[in-house]
Design goal:
With 107 residues, the chain is of the alpha+beta class. The chain is 35% helix and 36% strand. Strands 2-3-1-4 form a 4-stranded antiparallel beta sheet. Helix 1 packs antiparallel against helix 3.
């Protein structure tokens, strides 16, 4: 596991918190496709994800324009529709400006 290499602040974080349904129908494949598509977009800085009942994915972006481009991406729009129809009981998306970050790593 590795953390996203976001670089200097400020930047933006999109926090997607979700509860899944029992339907899997292409979810993992779509997730891989979306990750590949996001990585190719200008302004994408990285992402981190965890799931244990509630899923949390945080993607990091250089600016609000990059986030808007991702939200409007054709592949992402299709996945959003499938998510609402099949994969999610509920979700919340939050967009935040990261003013400061710091880290620790045991030697």
């Amino acid at each position: 596991m590795s953390f996203a290499k976001t670089g200097a602040t400020p930047y933006y974080a999109v926090i997607f918190t979700s509860v899944r349904t029992d339907v899997d129908d292409g979810y993992e494949e779509t997730d891989r496709i979306l990750c590949d598509a996001a990585e190719k977009l200008p302004g994408f800085l990285g992402s981190e994800s965890a799931r244990n009942g509630i899923g949390i994915t945080v993607s990091y972006w250089r600016d609000l324009e990059s986030i808007a481009a991702w939200k409007a991406d054709a592949t992402h729009l299709i996945a959003q529709k499938r998510g609402r129809e099949n994969w999610y009981e509920e979700y919340v998306t939050r967009v935040c400006k990261v003013e400061r970050d710091y880290s620790f790593k045991k030697a």
